[in-house]
TrEMBL record, chains A, B:
Residues 97-180 form the Transcription regulator PadR C-terminal domain. This is DNA-binding transcriptional regulator, PadR family. GO terms for molecular function: DNA binding. Keywords: DNA-binding. Residues 12-86 form the Transcription regulator PadR N-terminal domain. InterPro entries: Tscrpt_reg_PadR_C (IPR018309), Tscrpt_reg_PadR_N (IPR005149), WH-like_DNA-bd_sf (IPR036388), WH_DNA-bd_sf (IPR036390). It comes from Anaerocolumna xylanovorans DSM 12503.
Amino acid sequence: MPIKKNKTRYVILGLLNEEHLSGYEIKRIIDTRLSFFWSESFGQIYPQLKELETEGLIAAFHQPDSNSKASKKYTITDQGKEELQQWLMIPVEKEIIRYEVLLKLYFSNAASSDIMLEHIKEFELNHNKQRKLFEKFEEQLKQDIDVHGNHRQVLMVLAFGQKVWESYASWCKETIKSLEDISANPENSDKGAD
Amino acid sequence: MPIKKNKTRYVILGLLNEEHLSGYEIKRIIDTRLSFFWSESFGQIYPQLKELETEGLIAAFHQPDSNSKASKKYTITDQGKEELQQWLMIPVEKEIIRYEVLLKLYFSNAASSDIMLEHIKEFELNHNKQRKLFEKFEEQLKQDIDVHGNHRQVLMVLAFGQKVWESYASWCKETIKSLEDISANPENSDKGAD
DNA sequence: CGGCGCATGTAACTTGTTACATGATTCC
DNA sequence: GGAATCATGTAACAAGTTACATGCGCCG
């Protein structure tokens, strides 16, 4: 039974399947290219690299000629490639999505409209930042077209991000307007008492 | 320093702020009304209820007249209400979103198009189910209008779901088409050989 | 009276974050 | 030589899931 629940291992295998990388580089790539749908911490990556090496799914080598930083790089092994392929085939587990901002909004009322406005604006800002990150990646991708054999698949993933962001942006706009409305006329909190 | 990281406590406080509920009922509500943006397991809820009671933020009482199942119900205390309000005010933490389906798609290639098709179709199906759940809730909400004072806020949250769901649906449709295309013409994997 | 669904709870485990320790290199 | 950044790693903790144990009431 080779398939484990832990997803970190598969992100690592997936990235190493394209190029040789160090732990630090893996983290950097996740934080840029994958950031809009995935995240990992160093505390997950380094121990996992160790484990994968022990299991023989990846192999470490030291940059031989490196005049600068001698970082420990990893390659995927044939066994690792096989496990990656097997993981790709098994069904996706239930998505666990948690939007704290929605939770707060859900439990808020007219009295907290000002605060919610802040939260939504923050949400908007963050997703704009993320959007810029991903547009950068998209440009990169268009330049060195087909470096990876999964060029089209990556574009599909980017399309997801684009669509979802558009709905975020449109929702933020609408919601900010509604909240400003409530803030301006707090007494009109339902159908117009008074 | 009253504010803790643990979000389960705030979901519980938020729900109890509207009505008296048992642990089981809390779980059921999260699984229906909040399911599209939140989830909790019994293993989180029951111990948390205990802790909140110890801290005096909620109080337990047994249904007195209950001829049927005597479930332990909880009420929020004034102290609990205060902590809830305080939590509402503090900024939202970075959203941690993990779409396993995108990860798989990202690491896949032309050879695994058939499998990815399965995954995306599954994703589509799940979100259709979720949509039905929330449409049910929306109807309910429209019937007993303004039972809660946060009627408008709940509608904003639902609007989020609706928008995001629409982008999911549209993305699934497009992506399924693309993948079927690749599946049908695997040799045409980039700009059209042959 | 046996099984099923409701209901509460706990323990073991896995997963994930945070804070810290360490050292090398680069830039001022 | 001191600060910043690159880079690797670990230990302690927090969060979350799963599987299990238990008991009650209802239905056939």
